[in-house]
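Q: Could you fold this chain for me?
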Amino acid sequence: TGTAYAINAIGAVVGERNNRAFRWQNGVISGLGLAGRGLSVAAGIRGGRIVGWCCETGGFVLAGGELTQLPLPPGKNSSAAYAVNGAGVIVGTTGSEEFGYEEVTVWTPQ
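A: Sure. Below is the predicted structure, expressed as structure tokens.
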């Protein structure tokens, strides 16, 4: 089973299927190369950028075939990315076990 979370302007869909992030386009479903990182979800797509999270490593962006883990702000130990805009700005959440809640976080391209 699976869930689709986002679609871009050219009809590529991202989501989670059997606990693994996927991209579906033109009838073909493919993984994102996140094997070994535990449960993963692709939550957003814009242009060629896909964002999401993995249980083992946190928030990520996949762009141009390169997977980048999103940096954590000081004092945080978890993250998830949910959406990306055309300028590459990513929005998601970060949290810490110490305080037990998550905060909205924005990552801007370097």
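A (continued): The mean pLDDT is 93.
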